[in-house]
Amino acid sequence: MSADTVRAGSPSAPAPDGALPAARRGDAVSFEELLDLASRAVGGSVVSANDEFFAERDNLVNPWAPGFTPRTFGAKGQVYDGWETRRRREPGDDHAVIRLGAPGRVHGVVVDTAFFTGNYPPEASVDGCRADGYPSPAELADADWFPLVERSPLEGDTRNRFPVDAGPLVTHVRLTIHPDGGVARLRVHGVPAPDPRLLPGTVDLAAAELGGRITDCSDRFYGSPGNLLLPGLAASMGEGWETRRRRGGGNDWVQVRLAAPGVLTLAELDTSHFKGNAPGWAALTGPGGEPLLARTRLQPDTRHRFRLSHDGPVDGARLDIYPDGGMARLRLYGSLTAAARDTLTAPWTGREAGGG
């Protein structure tokens, strides 16, 4: 499988980390629009690496874009924002094992060598496995690994992009660099597949880590709408969704596809950190236009919670804000339908068609 290499600053470069590319209706969807399953923002972690002499393995899953300050030297040399191993003097390869924060099906991988120029790996490969529970590094070494990205050439200071044919469910990935060098970030984009046996009766069905995602949006000028569905509280306005100022009629909105169909009972509309630019009002509707929350006044810098009352399950919702502004998070709590729970359970219990 060949890589689609994109250099920083290239006109074909994807949107910054955390942002959705501004695609028109009907355009092909990039796998980078899907959730980064390995990101620390959803609980990803580097559980082991055979070497991290020059730069720590944990940098691989940081959610922010890598940075670089020239002529900053520590005891081991130039400081890099990534994972870097020592120069090999014997045969072999280096590797790092990552536990995905959200298990799922992988649709694409980005091996980002940003700022690594004379010290990037010439080649890399990525494998996946499904390991239930919380295995140790030693147990993962004996797991049944399968290839996601075959051994492929890399370019330095580049987002090396590898589309992946989505296959079995993946809980862990192993990045192998041939033979050594530095990688700034590893992005593992895909669709989450939560194990419903581990979910409580009422969950945030819009949560990105469970498979909720943004499918459409009126405006993403200052911030990605995908931020609305990330775990935890936003630390600043930069971690939310914000639109430009409207000078005409209309209002801004975002469309959410739930992780699975369910009956919604509670919504949280969080305007934390948005003080002079929070929306004045908001409303929620179902996919067919049925009202979930009537147009309601919002306050700046506030976590609002509203009870919802509607007939039957829904598989999505539309948030309208009036007329514009910014929000930190959107939570849509509810319970899965019996059919949705069975569908989610299938790949975890082996009842899925074709295995799982």
Automatic annotation (TrEMBL):
One example GO MF annotation: allantoicase activity
Keyword Hydrolase among UniProt keywords: yes
Keywords linked to the UniProt accession: Hydrolase, Purine metabolism
Biological pathway: Nitrogen metabolism; (S)-allantoin degradation; (S)-ureidoglycolate from allantoate (aminidohydrolase route): step 1/1
Region feature (Disordered): 1-22
A Pfam family: Allantoicase
Catalyzed chemical reaction(s): allantoate + H2O = (S)-ureidoglycolate + urea
EC number annotated for this UniProt entry: 3.5.3.4
Limits of the Allantoicase domain: 43-192, 211-335
Family statement: Belongs to the allantoicase family.
Annotated protein name in UniProt: Probable allantoicase
Classification of source organism: Bacteria, Bacillati, Actinomycetota, Actinomycetes, Micromonosporales
Gene: alc
